[in-house]
Design brief:
By secondary structure, the chain is an alpha+beta fold. It contains six helices and 15 strands. It comes from Nocardioides currus. Keywords: Hydrolase.
């Protein structure tokens, strides 16, 4: 048997996931000239000579899905050797090296669409993860390998929040559509930057979210939460939030209003504690925990 010509191809791909009502993964359907039957793969493609893998991946994601993505720092590498493979009608001894990154698109990204004309893919779509895993959606072998190795990004975040009372009401902020718990109300506050004193971080966050200055008082307690979801950036995260809960005050004549545009807060209001306790106002567990500590 004659020796077949050797061909080696290096390509970069991305596992791009999101969580809406259920986990979904972004896939691209191979063109009929590549697969006669319906077959889906990860967004990505071959590296040009001298091209950085991450740059190649960003280019391919735009061409195949029309979306701008952020690519993570680490990747898995998969090797597939096909001693007899037909590539463009020519039999070759084919070796594929596939570099698969974690990547994400903004949570408010438009629907995916193929931009490249006459490329290797003809459709891009979000698919429920369980339908991919159980084989309902036909995928190339690489997709199964990559999903088996994929773990959500682990993020632990320290944040500071304020319990600000006025009579029988408490000052709350509402989470915008960019946040994971969109529409729920929480305490004013947010993440502590590296090296930032928590009290300073809290004063800064209250000014951004409520448009008022606050005086930070004593630390009431520490609360935490753990869940998996989509961050404002669009990255699916295994999230652990550690919350420092402070007592705080604002001036009697202060008029809270949302100051930060395009953030994770879209409203601020004085909410009766009785409405929180009765369940009439949807709030995060942090609020109930803090109100119990504060004597609410």
């Amino acid at each position: 048997m004659p020796t077949l010509p050797r061909r080696q191809r290096v390509a970069a791909y991305a596992v791009i996931m999101r969580v809406t009502s259920r986990p979904e993964v972004l896939l691209c359907r191979l063109a009929p000239r590549i697969s006669r039957t319906e077959l889906w793969t990860l967004p990505g493609g071959g590296l040009d000579h001298g091209e950085d893998p991450r740059d190649a991946l960003l280019r391919e994601i735009v061409e195949e899905t029309g979306l701008s993505a952020t690519v993570g720092d680490t990747a898995h590498v998969y090797s597939a050797h096909l001693p007899r493979a037909s590539r463009d009608g020519v039999m070759t001894d084919f070796h594929a090296l596939r570099i698969v990154y974690d990547a994400w698109v903004p949570s408010d990204a438009p629907a995916p669409r193929v931009v490249e004309v006459d490329g290797s893919t003809v459709e891009a779509a979000w698919h429920p993860l369980e339908r991919v895993v159980d084989g309902t959606v036909p995928v190339v072998a690489m997709v199964g390998e990559a999903l088996a190795d994929h773990l959500p990004f682990q993020l632990q975040r320290v944040a500071a929040y304020a319990v600000i009372r006025r009579g029988s009401a408490v000052l709350l902020t509402r989470l915008s559509a960019r946040a994971h718990h969109a529409g729920a109300w929480t305490l004013p506050g947010g993440g502590v930057d590296h090296g930032e004193p928590p009290a300073d971080a809290l004063a800064r966050e209250v000014a951004e979210e409520c448009g008022v200055e606050c005086e930070v008082g004593r630390l009431l307690d520490v609360h935490d939460t753990h869940f998996a979801g989509t961050a404002p950036s669009g990255r699916v995260e295994d999230f652990h939030g550690v919350h420092l809960v402070f007592a705080a005050t604002i001036a009697d004549d202060a008029d809270p209003r949302v100051a930060e545009v395009g953030g994770t807060t879209d409203d601020v209001a004085w909410v009766e504690v009785a409405d929180v306790e009765s369940g009439n106002v949807p709030v995060l567990d942090l609020v109930r925990h803090a109100l119990g500590l504060a004597g609410g």
